[in-house]
Amino acid sequence: MNNQQPFVSNQVIEDACEWAIMHGVAFRQADNTARHCPFSIAPTTMERPVYQHLLKVTPLIAKLISAVSEDHDFLQSSLRDMAKADPFFGSLMALHQQAHGEQESRRLPARQPLLLMRTDFMDDRQHGAKVIEFNGIAAGMGPFGQRATELHQFMSNQWGAIYREWLEDENATPADNIGMEQLALGIATAANKINAEFACIQGITSTQGATSIQGENSTQAVNHKPTFLMVVQNNEDNVYDQHLLEVALQQRGIRTVRRTFEQLSTQLSSGDNQRLMLDGVGAIDVVYLRAGYQYMDYYAPALNEPVCCHTLSQTRLFIEKHRVAVNATISQQLATSKSMQMILTMMPAADYARWGLSLAEAELVKSVLADMKPISTETITWFNTQANKQEWVLKNQGEGGGHCVFGDDISAKLSELKPAEYDAWALMQRLYPHEREKPTIAVRDSKQSLVTDLVSEIGLFTAHYQGQPVTEFNGYAGYLIRSKPASENEGGIHSGKGILDSLTLVD
């Protein structure tokens, strides 16, 4: 980045930063102040046919993952080796076995799968748009994606000349993005269906007020207003994106509450007919996990457990034993792992018929899956002697930034791995997206800098309940653009050099 300043008036930067803070595009600081998320001053572009292809294929990916996540025998058999190599996924597989390993448990009308997924793509210069990864747990920042689109609209309206100066193509048109509303619609649809089921069972209506239901330990008031529980990390900074989604839900008549796993370990109980109850709140209709993708989310030092993380992970299992819509289910988290991505990538398209996809649908999905290779002694030998090391990235099962190894560093990492660890890692074709044709301005901590080699990653959101699309666009629910300098490997808004961006389309 070139830090010579200013490239545009500081008044413009101040206006944009204040708009971002005012509209919740921010991170909470330790002292309870807020700082705006880093953002670009003007959007990136994509060719319209590429974008339309992604709109068509991404709901099919979600349809596939929805079905795979409910194929419990397949999950157990295909991910067994990976679970032995990765302790965290080993614990997830043990939970999955507890939940679905016995035939009797499969007959119980327990948790209902609500798949809120973000599928991340890069538009490779040579191979076209390809999947980077599936995000099935804590697949957030849909509200920030919509707000970035609105921020650029604000720039266009208020500072039109400056906006056009930094626009990549003056003939480009903004891509609509109402991800926040569509995600809220999907969640509200599931919440209302669960709530209506119990209203029917209990012979009541939402206008009759509260009654009581006997939990395991106490009598608790039932809240007949559909209720959404967000499971969050303690003292996290990315709360405003979460609250924006909650506000959109509240506008749809959904009550929202937030709890950590540690809080839930003592506050949940069972009501009649497998109703999930929360102390002081009542019945819960939807549980949305924004935590649970790492050991730390289940670690509670005060419990002084002989087996680390047992109590809080059992809390997650307890939730799934109830008639409640859940994202992400344990199954969904397994089905969106890097290992499953590799398995599906290497599988012939015709095999997708097992999960209800036609051959044409399967081939569409396969068209956006980048090559992946399992780690083995043979693969390591091939990589060290024959491969172009710059064409591959080494990934483990971790979520978020910091879990990838690039280029010449891959051989060093492979040499450190023990054979028992191989199945936790995979090689994936490295994607080299188009660089933005014009330089742009990145704004971080209210300071502007010029970026001459910006590249973008697009995440498309989908929402499916019980395997069926629950948005106005066949399951599609908006997008998130994160851009970064091409010279940087980590593009996360939190953990890397990424900035929020939006999308315009060119013919």
Task: List its traits.
ten-stranded mixed sheet; 17 helices; 2 domains; alpha+beta; about 500 residues; four-stranded antiparallel sheet; Dna Ligase, domain 1
The largest sheet, given as strand count, sense and whether it forms a barrel, is: 10 strands, mixed
Helix segment count?
17
Shape: globular
Task: Tell me the span between the first and last alpha carbons.
Answer: 30 Å
Task: Output mean pLDDT.
Answer: 91
Q: Low-confidence spans: pLDDT under 50, at least 5 residues? A: 205-222
* Strand proportion: 15-25%
Q: What structural category characterises the helix and strand content?
A: alpha+beta
Q: Share of helix among residues?
A: 25-40%
Give me the count of strands: 27
Gyration radius, in Å: 23 Å
Q: How many domains in all?
A: 2
Question: Can you walk through the features of this model?
Answer:
- The chain is an alpha+beta fold and 507 residues long.
- 36% of the residues lie in helices and 24% in strands.
- It contains 17 helices and 27 strands.
- The strands form seven sheets. Strands 5, 6, 10, 11, 15, 16, 23, 24, 25 and 26 form a ten-stranded mixed sheet that branches. The chain has a four-stranded antiparallel sheet with strand order 17-20-18-19. It has a three-stranded antiparallel sheet with strand order 3-21-22, with no helix packed on it.
- A hairpin with a 3-residue loop joins strand 13 and strand 14 (282-283).
